[in-house]
Design goal:
rod-shaped, about 300 residues, 12 strands, three-stranded antiparallel β-sheet, five-stranded mixed β-sheet, alpha/beta
C-alpha cells in the first residue's frame, strides 16, 4: 500500500476535519476527499462518518488508524536505517591482515579509532598470509587487507604503502651472534647472516620482502642457505625460537618470544624495509570500506613514523 494515502488518512483522523487536514498537508480539500474515498474503496470499509462539523472515525477506521500509524512509523524507521546505510554508518566490513602487519601498533590503533567513529559497522577480522589475503580480495571475500610487501598484484586491486619500517635479524637468544653482541649493539653484516641457515616467510619463488632479501644477497655475491620457507610470520618466529635458523623480520615484531629470541639490526638493511600496505578493490562500493581506507590514510599521514 502506498504511504501517501495513509498520511492523508492519519491527518484527517487526527484533525477530524477534511479542510483542516488539507491545510495541514498543504493540498486542496477536494483531492484529499477523493483520496480518502479511494482508500475506503480499496479496503472495502467505511473509515469515516461524515457530519456537518467534520468527520468521525468508524469502528473500522479506529482499527485502521492503529495499523496506519504502525506502518508509517515502520516506514520512517526504515528510511532512517537506509540513510545510515547510505552514509556508511552501518553495514559489514571484512578486513584481512597478515600477522606481521597486525603486530604493528598502527593496525590495532586504527581499528580502535574506526570502532569509535563507526560503532554501527560490524567488523569481520581475518588473519592469513599475504598470498591468500590477496586472493580473497580479488575474489570479493574481503573488502580490504593490510599486509607487508605484495606477493601478487591482480587486476582490480589497489596497493598503497601507508608506512615503512626497518627490518631486524631475529635469532635464538643463545646464538653466538647474540652472545657476542657488544653493548654498542653493532649491526650484523649480511655476509655473517648468510653463514647461518635462514628461514623465509613466503611461498617458494614468490616475490615480497624475503625475495628482496635473497636478491640483495645475490647482488653482493652471497649464497644464503635457506633451511625453511613458511606461510606465516609467527611460524617463522616459532622456528627461530626453536633454534631452526635465523630470519629477517619487521622491527615491530620485536618482543615476540622475547625470552627466546634476540633482535639485531642488519648492517646492509638500508636497502631493505618492511612497508605496511593497504590493499583495496578498485571502485569499492562498500562505504564502511571507503571510510576505513580514508581513516588509515589519515592516520598514516598524521603518524608517518609510527
Amino acid at each position: 500500500m502506498e504511504m501517501r494515502p495513509l498520511r492523508y488518512f492519519v491527518a484527517v483522523a487526527e484533525t477530524g476535519h477534511m479542510t483542516r487536514a488539507a491545510e495541514q498537508l498543504g493540498i486542496q480539500q477536494p483531492p484529499l476527499s477523493l483520496a480518502i474515498k479511494s482508500l475506503e474503496r480499496e479496503l472495502g470499509v467505511q473509515l469515516f462518518r461524515r457530519h456537518p462539523r467534520g468527520v468521525a472515525l468508524t469502528d473500522a477506521g479506529r482499527l485502521f488508524q492503529v495499523e496506519a500509524l504502525r506502518m508509517l512509523q515502520d516506514m520512517e524507521a526504515m528510511k532512517q536505517r537506509m540513510a545510515r546505510v547510505a552514509n556508511g554508518e552501518v553495514g559489514t566490513l571484512a578486513v584481512g591482515f597478515t600477522s606481521s602487519a597486525a603486530a604493528h601498533r598502527f593496525v590495532p590503533e586504527a581499528l580502535r579509532a574506526f570502532r569509535r567513529e563507526h560503532p554501527g559497522v560490524e567488523l569481520q577480522l581475518r588473519e592469513n598470509n599475504a598470498a591468500e589475503l590477496t586472493e580473497a580480495l580479488a575474489a570479493g571475500r574481503l573488502h580490504c587487507g593490510l599486509l607487508r610487501v605484495p606477493v601478487a598484484r591482480p587486476e582490480g586491486l589497489i596497493f598503497e604503502t601507508l608506512l615503512r619500517e626497518p627490518v631486524l635479524v631475529a635469532m635464538p637468544s643463545d646464538h653466538r651472534f647474540a652472545l657476542a653482541r657488544s653493548k654498542a649493539s653493532r649491526p650484523l653484516p649480511l655476509a655473517r647472516l648468510c653463514e647461518e641457515g635462514i628461514i623465509l616467510v613466503r611461498r617458494p619463488g614468490a616475490p615480497g620482502l624475503y625475495a628482496e632479501l635473497l636478491a640483495l644477497c645475490h647482488a653482493k655475491g652471497l649464497r644464503p642457505r635457506v633451511v625453511a620457507e613458511v606461510d606465516r610470520m609467527m611460524t617463522n618466529l616459532n622456528l627461530v625460537a626453536a633454534g631452526v635458523g635465523l630470519s629477517v623480520v619487521p622491527a615491530s615484531m620485536t618482543g615476540v618470544h622475547a625470552h627466546a629470541i634476540a633482535y639485531m639490526r642488519l648492517a646492509d638493511g638500508g636497502q631493505l624495509d618492511a612497508p605496511l600496505t593497504l590493499v583495496s578493490r578498485v571502485e569499492e562500493d562498500n562505504l564502511p570500506a571507503q571510510h576505513f581506507a580514508a581513516l588509515l590514510r589519515r592516520h598514516a599521514s598524521e603518524n608517518p613514523g609510527s
